[in-house]
UniProtKB/TrEMBL annotation:
Keywords of the record: DNA-binding, Transcription, Transcription regulation
Family matches, as PROSITE patterns: HTH_LYSR
Limits of the HTH lysR-type domain: 1-58
Biological classification of the source: Bacteria, Bacillati, Actinomycetota, Actinomycetes, Kitasatosporales
Family: Belongs to the LysR transcriptional regulatory family.
Protein name: LysR family transcriptional regulator
Signal sequence region: none
Species this chain originates from: Streptomyces lunalinharesii
InterPro entries in UniProt: LysR_HTH_N (IPR000847), LysR_subst-bd (IPR005119), WH-like_DNA-bd_sf (IPR036388), WH_DNA-bd_sf (IPR036390)
C-alpha cells in the first residue's frame, strides 16, 4: 500500500469522480484508476462503486477512508514538524467556517497570522456545520468556526467559545408582526417560515427552540446561504430567525426581538491530537486575540457528545 494510493482514494471520495480526482492529483485518469484497482486488489474488496451517476463509496470504502485520511495527515504533519525546526514556520493551514461569521473578525486574524508566518499557505472553505464537523474530525480542516447547539464541543474536539449571538425574527415590511415590540415562537408557528437546511447549526438551534416551546412550525422554504433568506422573507414567503448581526445587514426586511429563543454560541473547534505547527500557531493567536465568553479555561474537552 502506497501513500499515493491513499491520496488517490481520498481524492475520488472527495470529488465523486475519477476524472476530477485525477485533475486534483495532477495525474492522468488511467494512472489513477490503475492505482485504485491495485489498492482494491490488495485489500480484497471494492472501495468504490462506478455507475452512470458517478462514483459511490462502498461500506468498505467508508471504513478505509478514515484511517487513510489520518495517515495522510500524519505524513503532512511529520513534514511540517521537521520544517518548523528551521527559522520560519511553513506548511498549510486549512480553516472552515460558517457564513456569515459576524462574531469573529477572521480577516483581521488572518492578516496578523500572515504577518507572523508569511510562508504558511492558508485555505478557507465555507460549509454547513455538519460538514465542518466531519472535516475537522477527518483532518480535512485544522480548525473550524461554527454556530453550536450547546456550549460544549462534540467528543474528541476542543473549543474556544467566542460569542453569544442573540436571534431576532425578520419579517416583510408589510407583515402584521412588523411593528410588534417582540414576538414568541408560538406567534411565529402560526405562519410559514424560511430557514437554513437541517445540516446547519442555526437550523438545529431554531428547531430546538420551537421544540422547547412546545410548538410545531412549518418551514416552507430552505436556503443554504443566509443571504438567500432576506429576499424570501421580503417577498412575504415566510418569517425567519437569524442572528441580530445578520439582520442588521438586511435592509429590505424588518427585524423584531423574539422571546423564548436562547442566544446561540459561536465556537472555534479543533482536534487536540495531531495538530500541525501551523494549526498550533493559529490556535495560539486565537487565544491571544479573542476571549472565551463561557469560561476562564478555554479548550476543555467535552465529556459527552452533542452531535
Amino acid at each position: 500500500m502506497e501513500l499515493r494510493q491513499l491520496s488517490y482514494a481520498v481524492a475520488v471520495a472527495d470529488t465523486g469522480s475519477f476524472t476530477r480526482a485525477a485533475h486534483r492529483c495532477f495525474v492522468v485518469q488511467s494512472a489513477l484508476s490503475h492505482q485504485i484497482a491495485r489498492l482494491e486488489e490488495e485489500l480484497g474488496t471494492r472501495l468504490f462503486e462506478r455507475g452512470s451517476r458517478g462514483v459511490r463509496v462502498t461500506a468498505a470504502g467508508a471504513v478505509f477512508l478514515g484511517p487513510a485520511r489520518e495517515a495522510l495527515a500524519a505524513v503532512e504533519r511529520a513534514h511540517d514538524e521537521v520544517v518548523a525546526l528551521g527559522s520560519q514556520l511553513r506548511g498549510t493551514l486549512n480553516i472552515g467556517t460558517i457564513t456569515p461569521l459576524a462574531a469573529v473578525d477572521l480577516p483581521d486574524l488572518l492578516a496578523t497570522y500572515q504577518e507572523r508566518h508569511p510562508a504558511v499557505r492558508v485555505t478557507l472553505r465555507t460549509r454547513l456545520v455538519s460538514d465542518l464537523l466531519d472535516q475537522v474530525r477527518d483532518y480535512g480542516c485544522d480548525l473550524v468556526f461554527v454556530d453550536a447547539h450547546a456550549p460544549e464541543p462534540p467528543r474528541g474536539l476542543l473549543a474556544r467559545n467566542l460569542a453569544h449571538e442573540d436571534l431576532v425574527v425578520i419579517v416583510a415590511a408589510d407583515h402584521p408582526l412588523a411593528g410588534a415590540a417582540e414576538v414568541t415562537p408560538a406567534q411565529l408557528a402560526g405562519g410559514t417560515m424560511v430557514d437554513m437546511p437541517p445540516g446547519s447549526g442555526i437550523r438545529r438551534h431554531n428547531d430546538a427552540a420551537f421544540a422547547a416551546a412546545g410548538v410545531t412550525r412549518k418551514v416552507a422554504f430552505e436556503a443554504d446561504a443566509m443571504t438567500l433568506l432576506e429576499p424570501l422573507v421580503a417577498r412575504g414567503l415566510g418569517t425567519a430567525l437569524v442572528s441580530a448581526a445578520s439582520a442588521a445587514g438586511m435592509p429590505t426586511v424588518r427585524s423584531v426581538p423574539v422571546t423564548g429563543v436562547p442566544p446561540r454560541v459561536i465556537q472555534a473547534l479543533w482536534k487536540p491530537s495531531g495538530a500541525s505547527p501551523a494549526a498550533r500557531a493559529f490556535v495560539e493567536l486565537l487565544r491571544e486575540r479573542t476571549p472565551d465568553v463561557l469560561s476562564e479555561e478555554d479548550g476543555r474537552p467535552c465529556a459527552s457528545p452533542t452531535a
